[in-house]
Amino acid sequence: MKPIFAKLASTTALSFALAFAVQSTGAIAQTDASSAPTSRAAARKANHQLERSVERALISAKIDVTDIRIVAKHGQVGLDGELANSADIDKAGDVAGKVPGVTSVKNYITVYEEGGK
């Protein structure tokens, strides 16, 4: 498991990457106002609901989410953390992409490092 500072930096980088990706699609989102949340609070709530939906889907697919962080913003989902093997990493990305409401997935999950403290 990584030290707390490395996890914090990783989460911050994931949030930044998602925020940057969302800025480039901002003009598209403004043209279809009927599907956009009406307030910032509603957008946050929708993002949190999507994060929980992705987490439930990963758990249902028998993927250990203990060391996985899920960040959702306007349908774009970022996965970050560590899993035991690369097959689970690929599976996590595929499962997340099939969740209703997910428009894209950025998969930053890595394989556990042995003795990585």
Question: Can you describe what's shown?
Answer:
With 117 residues, the protein is α+β, with helices and mostly antiparallel strands. The chain has a single domain, classed as Histidine-containing Protein, Chain: A (2-Layer Sandwich), CATH 3.30.1340. Helix content is 51%, strand content 19%. It is built from four helices and three strands. It has helices at 4-24, 26-31, 40-60, 86-97; strands at residues 68-73, 76-83, 104-111. The protein has a three-stranded mixed sheet, with helices on both faces. The protein is globular. Residues 23-33 have low confidence and may be disordered.
Structural class: alpha+beta
CATH class annotation: Alpha Beta
Alpha carbon gyration radius:
15 Å
What kind of sheet is the major sheet?
3 strands, mixed
Q: In terms of per-residue confidence, which ranges show pLDDT below 50 for 5 or more consecutive residues?
A: 23-33
User: Rough shape?
Assistant: globular
Count of alpha/pi helices:
4
Helix content: 40-55%
Number of strands: 3
Predict the CATH topology.
Answer: Histidine-containing Protein, Chain: A
The CATH architecture assignment turns out to be: 2-Layer Sandwich
Please trace the helix and strand order, writing H or E for each element: HHHEEHE
Task: Count the domains.
Answer: 1
